[in-house]
Design goal:
The chain has 115 residues and is α+β, with helices and mostly antiparallel strands. Helices cover 30% and strands 36% of the residues. The mean pLDDT is 86.
Length: 115
């Protein structure tokens, strides 16, 4: 549409189906991978899984939409997706299923009912 954006130090241009906008993200989570960490700050589980899958041969997947929308925060070791999944399942109402070399996270309906 012919718009021009000038980026300053630390600015980021984000483009999505909803449009384009500028933001200034914290660099700590973006650079954490250099120390073997992923820093998640109130991320949707589906987005967190996509990030963790970048660093591991063992792939994570979300088993349902309810699980994908859950929010997660914390500092996690990259490359250990099974450990990440087990940790998240202790914090959130999720269960971990291992099938065909993939780790699937699904909502645990029994734990959801318990609150």
């Amino acid at each position: 549409d012919g718009k021009t954006a000038v980026l300053g130090k630390g600015d980021r241009l984000v483009s999505s189906a909803d449009g384009t906008h500028l933001d200034k993200p914290s660099l700590l989570p973006l650079l954490a991978w250099q120390k073997g960490q992923a820093i998640l700050e109130n991320e949707k589980l589906g987005d967190a899984i996509a990030e963790m899958n970048r660093y591991s041969a063992v792939k994570l997947a979300v088993g349902d939409n309810a699980a994908a929308g859950l929010r997660v925060s914390g500092v996690y070791k990259v490359g250990d997706n099974l450990g990440f999944a087990r940790s998240i399942a202790r914090l959130l109402p999720l269960r971990v299923e291992q099938t065909d070399g993939k780790v699937l996270l699904r909502v645990d309906t029994d734990r959801m009912r318990q609150g």
